[in-house]
From TrEMBL, chain A:
One GO term describing the cellular component: plasma membrane
Domain of life: Bacteria
Molecular function terms, GO-annotated: transmembrane transporter activity
Name of protein: Iron complex transport system permease protein
UniProtKB/TrEMBL annotation, chain B:
Organism encoding this protein: Prauserella shujinwangii
One Pfam family named in its UniProt record: FecCD
Spans traversing the lipid bilayer: 29-48, 84-102, 114-134, 146-165, 177-195, 225-246, 267-291, 331-351
Family: Belongs to the binding-protein-dependent transport system permease family. FecCD subfamily.
CDD domains: TM_ABC_iron-siderophores_like
Name of this protein: Iron complex transport system permease protein
Membrane topology summary: Multi-pass membrane protein
An example molecular function term from Gene Ontology annotations: transmembrane transporter activity
Cellular localization per UniProt: Cell membrane
Source organism superkingdom: Bacteria
């Protein structure tokens, strides 16, 4: 998607071709925040157990220790909070990945970053016996970083830079390798197998507020870095040569981007397991809503990520009484989007 | 073979003729499967002999030919043989399926596990196991026939989807691979979901479906695979004569008089069926279908993966990997080793194909 698509109307209005007025974008962001609040409300109100709205409200405002209070305050509220954090992280992470690779099918799940974090965390849990999240989140970061770097290097082997196809294939190869290694570690012991079977599908259920509190600093830091990175991404979308000639420090932009992606994806995977396809779909919706300017695209992708994650989770809860994990709902929704993108006339570089 | 003459389509090669049909005689194309088969017999004999009571490979061969004592006959035929036989059959099916997919897609990266066929078959098989175990409806004969049948249906549906979704005024190899990656993601997640939903107490059964496992295969799983292969392999080999033309691309193949879409669609379904049946028996043993056709191609020095060579090498690779793991890390299923060995190979292939595109 090129930035400089001249539209006569835009030229007439504010002199900059193709520019959407700032006020409209602010309104869009405001609407997304409202949607997120609504989605969070749905996530607290609906679940496997049907509670009357009054009881839910009561539990939030004046808890008196009833069963409804217990369900809402200790199950649904932390779940919603973790969903928001993970959704923000994966949405922004996906937008950053697509921006840095200029690749419309970049996604932490498809490019093996999720599997990298997953492998490192499994290693931490099974081999090193690390049990608390603060312990293994660092492994998650290291794994995500390593996998991202390896996939990008592989994808641009041959010196012509990466293309959508080469990155996706490099991601598939690395994912498959890590998957084999994870299996080799996990299958050795039954406890590891049980843990793996449920963690690996990607779920936001069954975590308490402590987990949310532990990943929150990383997600916030990652989001800040992502926002700082966005002006650089805008210049980068004109191509590396143009960006350099415009005086941009390419290395700084790249390092900042990789750091932000690592923090965001690593934290999300540590808390929820590998959730694929969210980072793929969301930037495309965001691009349709706000246009290609990354300063607006990244925040709206983050918000949309949280909204979509919460909605997918609620759908999973309602459809099969909380036996359909959010990672699966998102994969079944997201893979057709991926196939559609692949089928579209060629794969344009962003 | 009425005459052997020293002229024909490939100058300098001998040509075999029988009535209207003619073949170019390439010694390596014949030698690779023969040598592979000889090695396979040795590896299989060692694999069968291994177990709680060790039997010498020569005794194993003697027993298989009907000359063993009662104890050895009992051990080998009742306990040991299914595992190795399943490895041979499954490996051969994966090898043949991979060779066909790679020729159709004209891309060495195309294989049933990357294209989502094995995961489609997995959805079918795990669905029957989980739903059956859960509601107690599928048992006995229904489970024996139902699981392979469901896998077959799942694999064929995945194959049809793959063909329909990647067809866009012809088949492009890379588009097919990317669509397949998307389909795999769907199938893989459904399999995982079924495993969490179901009452899969039997961890061994779960590992079969996660990585591919030969350890717990019995006669009841070998039977359907053998039957399906007996039907599918001859049909595929007969139908595969168009592959030689398809390798040149759509336009040339049409010019050669091949009904391109019919030939490719039919072969793709046959290959999907082969991969699905194999997956039903032993789970997704990854990379066998990816690697063996390329190894066979290099050994036989042909332009496209040789079918017989791919089958034999697929069997050899699967049984060899199983034996290697039994000797070094008996707790692990065979799919772990093939995945760990195969992924670097996939990366190598990928780097190499990038260089070629550039040149």
């Amino acid at each position: 998607m090129e930035v400089t698509v001249a539209s006569p109307a835009g030229t007439a209005r504010d002199g900059i071709p193709g520019r959407t007025p700032r006020r409209r974008r602010s309104l869009t962001l405001g609407a997304l925040v409202a949607c997120l609040v609504l989605a969070a409300g749905l996530s607290i109100a609906f679940g496997a157990r049907t509670l009357p709205p009054a009881a839910v409200l009561d539990a939030l405002v004046s808890p008196d220790g009833s069963e409804a209070d217990l369900i809402v305050r200790s199950l649904r509220a932390p779940r919603t909070l973790i969903g928001i954090l993970a959704g923000l992280a994966l949405g922004a992470g996906g937008a950053l990945m697509q921006g840095h690779t200029r690749n419309p099918i970049a996604d932490p799940g498809l490019l093996g970053v999720n599997q990298g974090a997953a492998f490192a965390i499994v290693l931490a849990i099974v081999v090193f016996g690390v049990r608390d999240l603060y312990g293994f989140v660092w492994f998650g970061f290291a794994g995500a970083l390593l996998a991202a770097v390896v996939v990008f290097l592989l994808g641009s082997v041959g010196g012509r830079g990466s293309t959508p196809v080469t990155l996706a294939l490099a991601g598939a190869a690395i994912s498959a390798l890590l998957y084999g290694l994870i299996s080799a570690i996990v299958l050795g012991n039954r406890e590891g197998m049980e843990l793996f079977r449920f963690w690996h599908v990607g779920s936001i259920a069954g975590r308490d507020f402590a987990v949310a509190g532990q990943i929150a600093p990383f997600v916030v830091l990652g989001l800040v870095l992502a926002l700082v990175n966005t002006p650089g991404l805008n210049t980068l979308s004109l191509g590396e040569d143009v960006a350099t000639s415009l005086g941009q420090d390419l290395r700084r932009t790249r390092v900042l981007g990789v750091l932000a992606i690592t923090l965001l994806v690593g934290a999300a995977v540590a808390a929820c397991g590998p959730i694929a396809f969210l980072g793929l779909i969301v930037p495309h919706i965001a691009r349709a809503v706000t246009g290609p300017d990354y300063r607006w695209l990244v925040p709206s992708a983050a918000l949309l990520g949280a909204i979509l994650l919460l909605c997918a989770d609620v759908v999973g809860r309602l459809v099969s009484g909380d036996r359909l994990e959010v990672g699966i709902v998102l994969a079944v929704l997201g893979a057709p989007v991926f196939i559609h993108l692949v089928r579209r006339r060629g794969l344009v570089r962003l | 073979m009425s005459a052997v003459r020293d002229s024909g389509p490939a100058p300098g090669r001998k040509v075999l003729r029988a009535g209207p049909a003619a073949w170019t005689f390439r010694p390596r194309v014949v030698a690779v499967p023969l040598v592979g088969a000889a090695l396979l017999v040795v590896v299989a004999a060692v694999n069968i002999g291994k177990g709680s009571s060790y039997i010498e490979p020569l005794d194993v061969l003697r027993t298989l030919l009907g000359g063993g004592d009662r104890r050895e006959t009992g051990i080998i035929f009742d306990l040991r043989l299914p595992r190795t036989l399943a490895g041979v059959l499954v490996g051969a099916a994966f090898g043949l399926a991979g060779a066909i997919f790679q020729t159709i897609a004209r891309n060495p990266l195309a294989s049933p596990d990357i294209l989502g066929i094995t995961w489609g078959a997995g959805v079918g098989a795990v669905g029957v196991i989980v739903v059956g175990g859960y509601r107690g409806q599928v048992s006995g004969a229904a489970a024996e026939l139902g699981v392979p049948l469901a896998a077959l249906v799942g694999g064929l549906v995945a194959g049809l989807l793959l063909y329909a979704l990647s067809w866009r005024r012809g088949i492009d190899g890379y588009r097919m691979v990317l669509v397949g990656i998307g389909l795999s993601a769907i199938g893989y997640n459904i399999v995982y979901w079924l495993l969490t939903v179901g009452d899969v107490d039997d961890a061994a059964r779960a590992t079969t479906w996660i990585v591919g496992n030969l350890a717990d295969v019995g006669w009841e799983a070998v039977g359907p695979v053998a039957l399906a292969l007996a039907v599918l392999v001859p049909v595929t080999l007969v139908g595969a004569h168009t592959l030689g033309g398809l390798q040149f691309g759509d336009d040339t193949a049409r010019g050669l008089g091949i009904r391109v879409d019919a030939a490719r669609g039919g072969l793709l379904l046959l290959a999907a069926a082969l991969a699905a049946v194999a997956t039903a028996a032993a789970g997704p043993i990854t990379f066998v279908a990816l690697a063996t056709p390329q190894i066979a191609l290099r050994l036989a020095r042909t332009a496209q993966p040789p079918l017989a060579g791919s089958m034999v090498l697929g069997a050899l690779l699967t049984v060899g990997a199983d034996l290697t793991l039994r000797l070094t890390a008996p707790a692990l299923p065979v799919g772990v080793l093939t995945a760990i060995l195969g992924a670097p190979y996939l990366i190598y292939l990928f780097v190499r194909s990038r260089r070629e595109v550039r040149a």
